[in-house]
Amino acid sequence: NRNNRLRRLMDLGAPEIILRNEKRMLQEAVDALIHNGTESEGKRHKRIPVKDRNGRPLKSLTDLLRGKKGRFRRNLLGKRVDYSGRAVIVVGPDLKIHQCGIPKKMAMELFKPFVLAKLLGEGETSKAVRKMKKAIIEKEMPEAWEVLEEVIKGKVVLLNRAPTLHRISIQAFEPKLVEGNAIQLHPVVCPPFNADFDGDQMAVHVPLSAASQAESRLLMLSRYNIISPAHGKPISLPTQDVIIGVYYLTAVTKDFEKIRPEEIKWKFSSPEEAMLAYFHRYISLHTPILIKINLKGEEKRIKTTPGRVIFNEIVPEEFRDYNRVFGKKQINSLVYETFKKYGVDRAADLLDDIKSLGFHYATVSGLTFSLKDLVVSPERDRIIKETWEKVKKIEEYYEQGFLTEEQRKSEIVRIWTKVTDQIKELTSRTLGANPFNPIYMMVNSGARGNIDQVKQLAGIRGLMIKAYDPRSREIKSRIFRGQAVYEALTFDYPVDRNLREGVNILQFFISTYGARKGQVDTAMNTSFAGYLTRRLIDVAQSVVVTMPDCGTHNGIRAMDLIKDGTVVEKLEDFLFGRVLAEDVIDPETGDVVINPENGKAYTRNTMLTDDDAKFLASYKKSIEVCKVIDFDITEIELPYTYAELAEDIEGENGEIFEKGSEVTWEVIKAARSKGKESIKIKIYP
Q1: Residue 418, pLDDT score
Q2: 193, 222 Cβ separation under 8 angstroms
Q3: DSSP secondary structure letters along 547-583
Q4: Distances (CA, A) of 511 to 52, 387, 452, 496
Q5: What is the pLDDT of residue 57?
Q6: Environment class of residue 458 by beta-carbon count within 10 Å: exposed (0-12), middle (13-18) or buried (19+)?
Q7: How many distinct helices (H) and strands (E) make up the chain?
Q8: Is-contact 351 367, C-beta < 8 A?
Q9: From 143's CA, which of 8, 216, 268, 383 has a CA 20 to 30 Å away?
Q10: How many other C-beta atoms can be found within 10 angstroms of the C-beta atom of residue 534?
Q11: CATH 3.10.105.10 applies to domain 84-224
């Protein structure tokens, strides 16, 4: 004990130098008690943390308060709550979009007080009656289940999946009692939760008061939250099985386009007649048929298939298309257009119908794939052989001194990159020769996988990423925030085989670098993105709306974002939800541009809707829009017209902020959305 030791030394009349040293040690002990720090902090401030016998730094008072496991975040801001539960989630194929399946036993525990109150009825009851009624619940008698069914009618529960990255990670659902021990979830609401059914767990909470039940139903019901707060487009969308089912239903045979209407054997006077022929198995889903259909009040004869007729029965009449294969992009577009035209209720009903159709016809298709379905292009071996000959020539030039080491490597990497792209294109064409090849269907529909994965399975694996070694001179590095950042390198020796035929030992070990790097990056970025989200929210607490227009003329010149010759982000996607920084002028007339469809003039401070964005993107290649950073204001305050800060057009309602309202929650929504997005992105400084 340093206090007692100092007192004893002072009583003994020890020399000043010893007393001074003892006082310094006492001060260090007090400092360590308040804030002991970590090893990295110790190196920075040249103060080694105080450790216990096992060499672990001792816990200081600040350690008890700070971080996720500190007193504030764990015990004060985050508490355990009653009327809650947790279980593994499984798919509920029969649920509506606003429903979830709650296991019976869990529901009985969650709603126990409500069930007991219902059993007891009104008025005072004796202890004996109360005891008897409790026994009915505990012994799970039939009366208890009947009362539970009555109690949950009209109620909603909240489902939350951690990590709660944005507001739609918590949504309200109407509970439906199910057997078993797992919570059932509608497959369409998986994307907002980022959930899948490989063992994920979700927490369920019961809002208790009538006010909280009403609020949850009106604001948080999954039916009303199919639109993402990040970009204003649908986020609750069909995935995987549903997409492949719809794709199979609307796909056509290879020679369908070549068949002329007069050559078609099967002709029908109505969709109902065609369905009758299909259900009696005279025709298949993909048989070319000629059918008389009433489209927008006009009768037409259309060449189509029974599958496409079945799908279009669930589509709003205005968006019906009998000559289109529906994959992921087409389904997403259909849902968005339906939402814009008819509102959230019709879009939710459409999602339910697509889910039911998709699951049914995915089952009908019997989709699976074998090794034979990985069709290798017959030209592949010839191309690889020719490439090796080119590489051999480059090696000869290098040995003769015509090329430097760096030139040799870059030339070899360039050749193999070009060949890999060529083989990818060949593999795609070879698979596409049969439109019902299971792997081609999966990739082309957008249900699962991509052409790069198919390239590695049936084409060529190609070049691999090299491990980072800070001591290597060939790795270019730059300093960022005091740390060296190393640029990615590739091996100049390719994996010239594919996974169907197998790779040799050397090629296997070359490919392990990239696999490890991917796993490390994912872990690092997740923690970084979570921290970034917290910082964005903290910084936004004091932002308040103060004026209609700050008067700045600075902005961003928005245009198509192009990388390596391909458009990464279209201008129209960037413009949606933004505010014009200046009038859009017609170069020929010198007047403000006016949209001929709705007569809207595109002057400064105009909020751009989706239709405006499409019109302007087709009219001009670049548009000047406002950006938050260039506001000409001294204090932390924002003009209330600049709603692009709030992720899209003021959330998803398309309204401009009122003066005096806090932007804080809109910024927090933005931070949460960006946090969710940034986890997926490799953040390069």
Answers
A1: 92
A2: no
A3: ES-------EEEE-EEETTEEEE-HHHHHTT-BBSS-
A4: 43, 20, 15, 12
A5: 85
A6: buried
A7: 23, 17
A8: no
A9: 216
A10: 12
A11: no
Alpha-carbon span 518 to 599, nearest angstrom: 51
Helices (H), 315-404: 328-342, 344-365, 380-399
The amino acid at residue 360 is H
The yes/no answer on whether domain 372-503 falls in CATH 1.10.132.30 is yes
DSSP state at residue 664: H
Label residue 158 left, alpha or beta by phi (over 0 means left) and psi (-120 to 50 means alpha).
Answer: beta
pLDDT average, residue stretch 463-479 = 58
pLDDT for the residue 479: 44
Residue boundaries of the structural domains of the chain: 2-76, 84-224, 240-365, 372-503, 544-661
- The rounded distance, in Å, linking the Cα atoms of 225 and 168 is 7
Out of 64-78, 123-137, 567-581, the most confident range is 64-78
Inter-residue contact 234 to 228 (CB < 8 Å): yes
Query: Rounded to whole angstroms, how far apart are CA atoms 502 and 523?
Result: 29
Distance CA 112, CA 135 (A): 12
Query: Residue 378: what are its φ and ψ, rounded to 5°?
Result: -65, -20
CB atoms within 10 A of CB 227: 22
Mean pLDDT of all residues in 561-577: 76
What does pLDDT average to over the chain?
A: 81
Q: DSSP state, 203? A: E
Q: DSSP state, 285?
A: T
Cβ distance 230 to 254 under 8 Å?
no
Phi, psi of 636 (to 5 degrees): -80, 90
Please give the span between the terminal C-alpha atoms of the chain, in angstroms, as a whole number. Answer: 49
Given the candidates 1.10.274.100, 2.40.10.10, 3.40.50.2000, 3.30.360.10, the CATH classification of the domain at 240-365 is 1.10.274.100
Amino acid at site 450: N
- Stated pTM of the model: 0.80
Let me know: does 492 contact 409? Beta carbons within 8 Å: yes
Per mean pLDDT, which range of 168-182, 389-403, 435-449, 522-536 is the poorest? Answer: 522-536
Do residues 646 and 490 touch, judged by C-beta distance below 8 A? no
Pairing mode, if any, of strands 561-563 and 566-569? Answer: antiparallel
Residues contacting 408, CB < 8 A, separation 6+:
394, 395, 397, 398, 492
Structure tokens at 167: 């507001």
Q: Which of 675, 656, 638 is nearest to 577 (CA)?
A: 656
Q: Which amino acid is at 51?
A: K
Cis amide prior to 163 (ω within 30 degrees)? yes
Q: Please give the full DSSP string across 23-78, using - where no structure is assigned.
A: HHHHHHHHHHHH----HHHHHHHT-PPPB-TTSPBPP-HHHHHSSTTSIIIIIISS
Instruction: Residue 147: name the closest of 156, 131, 164, 134 by CA.
Output: 134
The rounded distance, in Å, linking the Cα atoms of 531 and 525 is 10
